[in-house]
Amino acid sequence: MTHLAANLADVRARINAKCRVVSRDPASVTLIAVSKTHGADIAAAAIAAGQAHFGENRVQEAEDKWPALRADHPGLTLHLIGPLQTNKVADAVALFDVIHTLDRPKLAEKLAAEMVRAGKRLSCFIQVNTGREAQKAGVDPSETDGFVASCRALKLDVVGLMCIPPVNEQAALHFAFLRELAVRNGLAQLSMGMSEDFETAIAFGATHIRVGSAIFGARG
Ligand SMILES: *Cc1c(COP(=O)(O)O)cnc(C)c1O
Predict the structure, then answer these.
(1) Ligand 1 mean position to 117 CA, how many Å?
(2) How far apart are CA 145 and CA 180, in angstroms?
(3) CA nearest 137: which of 191, 93, 81, 181?
(4) What is the CATH number of the domain that holds 135?
(5) Domain range holding 181?
(6) Which band of pLDDT confidence, cut at 50, 70 and 90, is reported for residue 156?
(7) Best residue among 210, 215, 216, 219 to mutate for probing ligand 1, ranked by most atoms within 8 Å of CB
């Protein structure tokens, strides 16, 4: 647990240092602590260390972990960063504040309808498959403009774009590309950068970085 507080302080210091170098306000970068696979006790320790934004990649796991923590700690923001199945949409809308993985028309329709039904409007990032990897989620880059427009037509609150670069490629190229797509679509926010590359992502304009292992240690 003491490691956790030190790791968190270190990541925050690295964010601040990088922001200084690239002349950005550190307040413009939201650190999302990715607590997937780690238990509620670990998440609670991160909250005690001042962390307020958390990311989970599975709806079921988040449902087991977060309702009790949220009841004890109002003011937390919970981000869904993993794939969302349409049969989990109601659960996701009930629990999360921000969705980072909006990536197909059917999901957009279900989310829009559920947000109306639940009377709760979540911010949404559209995930773009910048590396056009067959096994990876996300809209094809060539379909991004059209998908953004159709999500807006559904009255979804589209705030930005998200990507997960291919493991063996220069992340910077993907970050620059994602930024270009966002600017072209009038989107101000960029969810990009993980433990290995969040400083690079900050240099390319990331507004939300998703950091797991650098804070919580390796996942088992
Ligand atoms: C697990 C995960 C992360 C965090 O990865 P680390 O390398 O542990 O920082 C970020 N984004 C997504 C989408 C993830 O699934």
Answers:
(1) 31
(2) 11
(3) 81
(4) 3.20.20.10
(5) 2-216
(6) very high
(7) 210
